[in-house]
Design goal:
The structure is a homodimer of 367-residue chains. Chain A has 367 residues and is an alpha/beta fold. Helices cover 30% and strands 24% of the residues of chain A. Chain A contains nine helices and 16 strands. The first copy, chain A, has a seven-stranded mixed sheet, with helices on both faces. Chain A has a five-stranded mixed sheet with strand order 9-10-11-12-15, covered by helices on one side. Chain A is globular and about 55 Å long. At the A-B interface, helix 1, helix 2, strand 7, helix 6 and helix 7 of A face helix 1, helix 2, strand 7, helix 6 and helix 7 of B.
Chain lengths: 367, 367
Amino acid sequence: MDSCEHSLDNIIKNNLNPEQLKEFNRIYYGRENHSELKLKESTRKISNEKNFQVAAYSFSAANEEVRNPRVVKLGLVQHSVVLPTDRPVDEQRNAIFEKVSHIIEAAAAEDVNILCLQETWSMPFFLCTKEREKWSGFAESTVNGPSVTFLSQLAKKHDMVIISPILEDDNGVWWNSAVVIDANGTVLGKHKKNHLPSIGGFKETDYYSPGDGGHPVFDTRYGKVAVNICYGRHHALNWMMFGLNGAEVVFNPAATIAEFGESFWGIEARNAAIANNYFTCGINRVGTEVFGEKKITRSYYGSSYVTAPNGIRTPSLSRVKDGLLIAEVDLNLCRQIKDHWGFQMTARLDIYADELREQVATNYVNN
Amino acid sequence: MDSCEHSLDNIIKNNLNPEQLKEFNRIYYGRENHSELKLKESTRKISNEKNFQVAAYSFSAANEEVRNPRVVKLGLVQHSVVLPTDRPVDEQRNAIFEKVSHIIEAAAAEDVNILCLQETWSMPFFLCTKEREKWSGFAESTVNGPSVTFLSQLAKKHDMVIISPILEDDNGVWWNSAVVIDANGTVLGKHKKNHLPSIGGFKETDYYSPGDGGHPVFDTRYGKVAVNICYGRHHALNWMMFGLNGAEVVFNPAATIAEFGESFWGIEARNAAIANNYFTCGINRVGTEVFGEKKITRSYYGSSYVTAPNGIRTPSLSRVKDGLLIAEVDLNLCRQIKDHWGFQMTARLDIYADELREQVATNYVNN
């Protein structure tokens, strides 16, 4: 990892003695030891050559009498764009494809089963420009656009579920969507971002509407997955509905900058894993993107991480470098934790359904 | 603070250089500097004499054109019991009263306006014994029981709102309740714990039922407050309803042990502050309590802390020592953050009211 990178994890690792580190890890990460997995030599080699970080951790579950273990490897990819944003769309996109293909090859070599890319991974996050027409070449079909074509081949080749969050062009109407490609390369379906930010000058509502597809969970070859896209992580009910609909892993692909909430990047997805007892995977892009003559600049802080249904989390990937985070998990842990803690049993959803309906009917008069 | 105390905050403070500490604080706490407030000499003196920690921090808000600042001081008290649990009830309770009276005097001297005690503060947390009759002397009336009588006098004397979470005896029926005493010493009302744990051998349902009073918010002299009692912090909707009902500060008095989730003690109340844009105050008891011939033993880890509506948090109080945590806050920050982030505007509660109702009607068939 870069020595210039002041990540919380590095600051800790480099300054505490072993006993202090254990105690810090126990309180902060939820376990004294991260259960790091050894990587293959070939993975080390390609990650050095192509300059991306790879880290892998394991989460186990208890053996059960009736169910066999359901061990799967999750893969999270964070990356920067490659070319300046004033280059032709095709060149920019192909350069990203080329970069990401190496990371996916490494994931395949490490036997990753379910992989998720970052929000609108195939383009620079131009939504901060407030411009539309000049960037429209980046919007893609979820049926036969360049991203889905590219990733379907890789999914089939590697027997890998791949989740592809893109800017969707649906016959001229845009959506912020995540396409779920099953391990045979076919598209299982898509989820459209439910909650759109409108913060200061930054308004995604200039580009597309909030999702109209509810909270789908996709029954992939390796497990039940859902996608909570970026700003949706601020909404506890968005997380909850994916859980009630049966998700075992919820990915949170994002494009988020330090000025907005780096200190709670580690809180929200982790809280969702604890509250809903599923695995959550926060994925954020890295690098600095510069747009137009005004040199509008946005820097992303990466820090992708995984949390287990019991609240134990991995260290983060780098704040500045491309990376692949692998988590070997036993999906049986979800139900085991539900049975132990009883959050679902004690949820009293009936009273909340009534109270929410009342709030809506009275237009939040108490506020 | 005790040198033997391996709190996360102490480990960090004692091992990082100033530059690293700033960066750690920025990412972890949300600001580089904690804005610590200077304590009065008399406060230092009494806290040394009586062996409790005092820490005080400040959270500011922007000036507004229409509203004046609404600066109030919140006080959180964590403490251990005093006498062995086999001593007479009155002796045990009076010893706690005596200890807590010194902490409240210190809070008054520091101009605390709203103070909250820990869950069932006037007794050892005997609920782990599964016994009932032999401890029933600790259950109290919220109208004229010893705790409310004792605290009403202090509230009036110091013009202080005091929240008193106790084991309520309502004509022979028990509840886990928090009594809200306004600054004139009168009882504004009470809240009954909505979600009860039933984890392994520990079942609060052996003692009392889940609350039947919904999500009240109390309009005290200094601001609108609510109480989310202990296990209720695991339920995002519990936090949310207090917010929708107008709370500006939500206290989370608890009695929780390291074996159950010390690593997410810092996550849940903080996430609630972020999601709902109010101040949250997590309060947990300290010390070890031993019960009966079987020597049933429970150790509490303190670590009380405050989070602001923008996610910035204070360091924790000690894991092992009695303490008073003071947060000087401007309540105007709640609406300022709501206006900036837009979580309420983008909450789409209508779709969730429908989806929850449907989940309830179908008995969670997807799960």
